[in-house]
């Protein structure tokens, strides 16, 4: 697979993945014009979110845990108040 049209992206995605995992590149065609090239990443073996970011994620989550948590009843009251003020 050397070229793929924008309409074929949905139907031929498995072929596109095979081509990219084998190291090939694919030209993207839109309305009979080449608009770009799809190339594989340099390192396919590494996950998107490596385990090194777990500490950073825990720090982010830790900051949000200090937020005020509302009960379902209080959320419904706040939402009803919002709708009343917005729509009358």
Count every beta strand, where a strand is a DSSP E run of 2 or more residues.
3
Q: Tell me the number of structural domains.
A: 2
- The string of secondary-structure elements, in order, is EHHEEHH
Biggest sheet, open or closed, and with what strands and sense?
3 strands, mixed
In the sheet with the most strands, the strands line up as 1-2-3
Radius of gyration: 24 Å
Tally of helical runs: 4
- Molecular shape: elongated
User: In percent, how helical is the residue content?
Assistant: 40-55%
User: How much is the average pLDDT?
Assistant: 83
Outline the low-pLDDT stretches: none
Supply the helix-strand structural class.
Answer: alpha+beta
Strand content: 15-25%
Q: What separation lies between the terminal Cα atoms?
A: 58 Å
Protein model, in words:
With 88 residues, this protein is of the alpha+beta class. It folds into two domains: 3-38; 51-87, no CATH class. 45% of the residues lie in helices and 16% in strands. The protein has four helices and three strands. It has helices at 8-11, 13-21, 54-64, 72-87; strands at residues 3-5, 26-30, 33-38. Strands 1-2-3 form a three-stranded mixed β-sheet. Strand 2 (26-30) and strand 3 form a beta hairpin. The longest helix is centred in the C-terminal third of the chain and has 16 residues, at 72-87. The chain is elongated. The N and C termini lie far apart (58 Å). 1% of the residues are buried. The mean pLDDT is 83.
């Amino acid at each position: 697979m050397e070229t793929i049209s924008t309409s074929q992206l949905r139907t031929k995605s498995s072929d596109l993945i095979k081509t990219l995992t084998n190291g090939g590149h694919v030209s993207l065609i839109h309305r009979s014009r080449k608009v770009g090239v799809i190339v594989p990443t340099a390192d396919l073996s590494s996950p998107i979110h490596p385990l090194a970011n777990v500490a950073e994620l825990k720090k982010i989550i830790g900051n949000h845990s200090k937020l005020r948590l509302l009960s379902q009843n209080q959320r419904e009251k706040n939402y009803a108040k919002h709708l009343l003020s917005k729509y009358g």
